[in-house]
Sequence to fold (493 residues):
Amino acid sequence: MTGGRLSPWLLAGAMTALYALGVALCFWKTLGADVVFVAPDAPIEPLPFGAEWRRFLSLPTVQNLVLLLPYKFAYEGTFWVDGYVMCLAAVFLLRGRGSSWGAAWVGGLCAAFVGYFFTLFCAGHRGVVDALAVTCLCFGALLRGVRTGRLRWWAALGLFAALGLGSQADVWFLVVCAVGAYGAWLLWAERPAWRRVLVGAAVAAAVFGAVGWPALRHTFVEARATRAAQLQEAAAPTPAAEAAPTPEAQWAFITGWSLPPEDLAELAVPGIHGHTSYPFDPEPYTGRMGSETQVLRQHTIHIGWVAMALALLAFLRRREPEARDLWFWWGLAVAALVLALGRYTPVYRLVAELPILEQIRAPAKWFHLTGFAVAILAGIGAEGAVRRFGARAALPLAAAAALCGALVARPYVFPLDLAHNALTRAVPRGAALYDALGWSRLRAVCRWQGIPLAETPAQAAVVVTTQRPGVRALATLRLGRGLSVALYRLPPR
Fold:
């Protein structure tokens, strides 16, 4: 530290500590070794290290890398690691465009705590979070590749794109569309030599193909088949397996979970329509986000007051030459917001006719790009304060962004104690358990405690099932507020 300035490394350490403090404040009740938050769509199968390593090699992603950690850390680790990766993605981009370190870290903290990204832990959308964070690194790599022509940045572009694809193909594709638009804007604004761009693009494609081949195979074989089955089941529920979905049914399928216009009020007032659709939520969601058959929401769309205020301040720098990309990021934020409305805007009828996009459901996913764009604008808006007061001015701004994000996300943390419950008291040591209900949360408790699951009831000492004559109840297992199952021992034969 010299002349009142913070060194980049010291600033990075301070900002990293602010991110960790924000995470700790949000998840304080679940930081115990045997307490996790409710994340229904985030199952993890504990495997030997060798098997986990083979899984990573077969599908290289950041989340599969996190799964190499011990099971009790990996369960929550992906969300926390990817939050920091998203922070670094914004810092990487803002520094590439010439922002100061302080302003870049402010934008990074704003990106990490965007509600629709950060609170997805409540839904357990591990793949969505991983694909978003890693693929957003492509923006910074592309910018550096176009500006400098150095092949290492083009190689990084291919690497980040490959690592993001294996996590969640549909979200990855939406981000890649935005990256493509950013590339087109850079070609117009930077006027780079075409030969350098073509060589760089070839390097990026080669790296993407080499690293991303497992993800490509997974996407075009397994993921594509899964989506086709979902469409067949949801859009054409007929006994005839070969029946094709009608246009109306397919439209209903892909526009489920569109962002209702009235939910936009949550940008100003978090939780104005409640928080989640879980039955144990003390402030349940009262809006209409969901499909035609059910209302279901497990997140917030609040971007953050700090991010929105700084994004508006970015307008004050609109005439500065280094802020000429301001219009691209505002355009992306607005365009993605309109597309997130889905069925509630006629524009989406045109989007639904495009290849690939015609099979991507949940238009609200577009809002992820709005959140990232606003965070970049926040970094641009913070530049004025950093220039005037120095890098130290970035610390309170970043702290405010982390505090706001943590407090907004805290109502979405539902602690689940996997150690002190009736299951561990009722099941004899070493005895197997048979789960006739198929509840993923019960299986999570068993995995957490090392309780083996039997393949048939006859092999089990304890069975989780429904009440039957001649079956004696052992105990009631509470799996969270309002959720419980009974444990029964099979009658002797």
Notes: Residues 335 and 370 are 8 Å apart (CA to CA). The chain has two domains: 8-416, 421-489.
